[in-house]
Amino acid sequence: MQVLRRHRGTVAGAVLAREVGISLRTLRRDIATLQGMGADIDGEPGVGYILRPGFLLPPLSFTADELQALVAGAQWVSRQTDDGLAHAVRNALAKIDAVLPPDMRRALDDNTLYINRRPANPAGLDLARVRGAIRHRHKMRVLYTDEDGVVAERTIWPIILGYIDSQRFIAAWCESLGDFEMFHTARVAHAEFLDQPYEGNHRQLVKEWHTRAKLHCHQQDCG
To answer: How many CA atoms lie within 13 A of 27 on its CB side?
Structure first.
């Protein structure tokens, strides 16, 4: 079920069997069992399978490493992102804690890992609002200082909020430049969040940005 959830479209039986570590024959038997339990799985041998939304199994148990990974991820989010995400991750852990057996709940109090807190955001930019603009595909108008110290007004289509080391950046399509750009949040002197949605498919814009970023990295010989 978890593997099916990770794939957005139809996934071949051979891929499912390989990821789960079972034979195709066992996979087909397990798929039939899940369908009998009510899982809305479409597909057939030789074609592939897709899980339709809406079906939930009883709470899954976690291994010690999986719980430690969740705790580490929660620490990183709470200490490196914004207050909104920090609150959300605490709520998520509380929901997980509520369905864990008592002997596994102690793992959520794991103190063997430490994630450093992020430095203060020098620009004072509300990252929660940036995430909202990305989610709703709304434009932003920013006053941005470039590497040469020149301040210019830019209307951008934010598509990614990035966290690299201690830096925060917004990957966006810039209407003024007619190209994708990386805007470091520390250089944003002022931001206006517009109600105007931008054009284009967000998934496609992200794909194009990744393609441009990889090409630029290759040209700069940065691996």
So the answer is: 24
* Angstrom distance (rounded) from CA 158 to CA 142: 11
Is residue 194 within 8 Å of residue 130, measured between CB atoms?
A: no
Report the alpha-carbon distance of residue 56 to residue 39 in Å, rounded: 8
Neighbour tally for 74: CB within 10 Å: 20
Q: What DSSP element (H or E) covers 205? A: helix 202-219
State the average pLDDT for the chain: 82
**pLDDT per position as a tens digit, 138-194:** 999 999 998 888 999 999 999 999 888 778 899 999 998 899 999 999 899 999 999
Strand locations in the chain (E): 41-44, 48-51, 138-145, 151-164, 167-174, 179-184, 188-197
